[in-house]
Amino acid sequence: MWSNYLIPSSLAETLHLLERHGDKARVIAGGTDVVVELHRLQSCPETLIDVTNVPGLDSISSDDQGRIHIGPLVTHNDIVGSNLCRRLALPLVQACFGIGSPQIRNRGTVAGNIATASPANDTLTPLHALGAEITLESTRGQRTLSIESLVTGVRRTQIAREELIVDVSFPQLDESRIGTFVKFGLRAAQAISVVNVAVVLTLDSGIVTDARIALGSVAPTPVRAAAAESLLAGAPLSPDRIGAVASSISLAIEPISDIRGSAEFRRYMAEVITRSALEQLEAGCQADGLPMAPVMLRAKGSSSLELNQEGGVTRRTYTSGEVIETSVNGELRTFSDGNNRTLSQLLRDVAGLTGTKEACGEGECGACTVLIDGTAVTSCLVPAPQAHGRRITTIEGIQSTDGTLHPVQQAFVDKGAAQCGFCTPGFVISAVALFREKSEPTEDELKQAISGNLCRCTTYYPIIAALEAVGSGV
Fold it and tell me: pTM value?
């Protein structure tokens, strides 16, 4: 995997480490892309520089110039749960809510999406439409680039190895500047975009004075639809105008055929979802599909990195070769053999807690779901050193000390919600996180909660029945 794992405690220290290690190092935060690349041997850095312990990088704010600022440690679920973003950056919230699963959204960051620069990364499209600027910092100073100039190709950017994204900013929306994001994937969750679109319009008395239409997963980078934008300017939205704009979308895109869809299908769907986005804006219903209180599967106040009150462990700078001190199921544990492992490997192979299963190794199946500081994550994508100073809860740790099953476990038994049982620990942990978050979840919220957990035996109906029984107190 990797040879050295470093967790600096300040931005200055991080920048000096990047300068020192250069091309032999990678920055890691959520790990949802980096760890997958390591598993696939697509990237083989000697050193990982983990920025999750650097203070001040996880903020979302607005300034007196009407710009929203997003720090590099802001996760997709941070965006989804931000009242500021829901009011003033709706397209980005919609994109973040459609990414992966709750477990992935608890880990993946907007800055990580930008740095990875896949043309199918959902947040890139709304950031293009919003006119985002990215600030990079190194020991030499800062520079700011537009997102169009930063992302240069498939997984290619102008970010130098010694640079770190320190800020993502864009003009906020208001009554006269509205926007939306529409994604088409092959399923409702855990789906990479076949095509997506973000539209941001500036209006004056109902007349479009400026239009920004960006499309993703249809070219090597997200692209602006200049011809379509020009058709919108100077007129109100109307069915005829919307139809003409949608028909012109094919002029902006150069899709490829791959396993998710043919080029012809992508052209067709790009027109369909652009029409849908404009119709939403015309009707003023662009926010209707976004839940008011979406399921997060995370603890309130889970951004704290210290365990002084629970577990007795305090986060500090970690360097390869040091022991990993963590609280596992309420017990303080020390591991000397975990530097180059993932958390799932540490739990299974070193701690002997084999209830945590690993199947895909890429965060897609949810079988390895555990709680870190009360937040559900896929442990196969978490480097084990990130457990240092945190509270880990596995399937072995949710029952009562007297051996009584947790209500979710008991409901699974009562409703026959398991066949082979391999996926069951992940489902149970996700459900435990849900009921800590929402005591009486709706059926839709139950489905949101387990959207990141796959069952090869397809026992979803009894699983839903078991969770409904817990929610109703039956």
Answer: 0.95
